[in-house]
Amino acid sequence: MSDDPSSQPVPASRAIGIYEHYCEHPGCTKWGGWGFPRGKQTIWFCREHRETGRTEAGSN
Ligand SMILES: [Zn+2]
């Protein structure tokens, strides 16, 4: 166990670009860990709103 922050790897999220995706639910700023295909895109929603994402994706 180490609490030394310098030992933690710095995520290169900016360089990757697509790595950063937050919940697309209006007003929600949580991390979007659940992705749903919508057209050629993927929409991302947090755990709370993943049901919304499923609906938005139009899966039937
Ligand atoms: Zn959300």
Features:
single chain; 60 residues; alpha+beta; two-stranded antiparallel sheet; 2 helices; elongated; binds zinc ion
Task: Please describe what this structure looks like.
This protein is an alpha+beta fold and 60 residues long. The chain has one domain (19-60). It has helices at residues 13-16, 50-57, and strands at 34-38, 41-45. Strands 1-2 form a two-stranded antiparallel sheet. A hairpin with a 2-residue loop joins strand 1 (34-38) and strand 2 (41-45). The N and C termini lie far apart (46 Å). Residues 12-16 have low confidence and may be disordered. Zinc ion (ZN) binds at residues 23, 25, 28, 30, 45-46, 48-49. It holds the Pfam family EsV_1_7_cys. InterPro entries: EsV_1_7_cys. This is Molecular chaperone DnaJ.
